[in-house]
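Friendly challenge for the regulars: who can give me the structure tokens for this chain first? No prize, just bragging rights.
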Amino acid sequence: MRALFKVLSFLPLFVLHALGWCLGWVVFLLSPTYRARFVANARQAGLESRVWLGAVGAAGQVVSELPRLWIGRVVPFQWRGAEHIDSALAAGKGILFLTPHLGCFEAAAQAYAARYGTQGNPITVLFRPPRQVSLRPLFASSRDRPGMAAAPTALAGVKQLLRALKRGECVGLLPDQVPPLGQGVWSPFFGRDAYTMTLSARLALQTGAVVLLAYGERLSWGRGYRVHFRPLSQPLASDLAIATSEINRAMEQLVREAPHQYLWGYARYKVPRKGDL
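First reply, four minutes later:
Bragging rights claimed.
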């Protein structure tokens, strides 16, 4: 697998995105279950087909761009909201970056690591190790880079995140990822109850870290990514369940900015199972 990734990493980004667009449509057309979930989730958000159709190809681009992002040449980044990061770092309280399954969610962390992490302000990102054991070294090494460390979705990883924030460092995670049973609450997401992790709210409330919303917008024709950063519209409530619902609403707002790049095929409303985060 690493050999294949190495070969693909030499391809121009626009070629990888073109391949990914085709992949996204092939999966959409050949998988009735995936297609039904994709359409149902987009309609749950009140979107017309002309709005979400672009997300079909974008879902494939999430996969096809990984070789370049993980082991290829550095991709171009455009910045929106860097001043919010500067202000948060000056406060010295740590930063909790929250991003949904929107656009290239690898991009925001990589952009931060390249600009700030290598200058003494590292970021730790939470990731779910692949089920195939043979792929785990590749996945782990792709996220362990200068200025960035990876924390697995397990108790040890959660402790790693907590320690980083208490040191005044930065942490990134996807709060719209469905957690195992017992590690979340049912909370509305686009008007339908979804089992939602409480980890993001707990980290913010326990550490006093600055919460910044983030996402990596995929630019057309392989021009790179535009990374967006902004604060919450208001501080989180002290009640855990309410704070979790507020984070869900914040994720909805980000998704509505670029619905053509959201992973509508993600099983956001599934019933959770027991296991590690």
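Residues 77-258 form one domain. The mean pLDDT is 93. Your move, everyone else.
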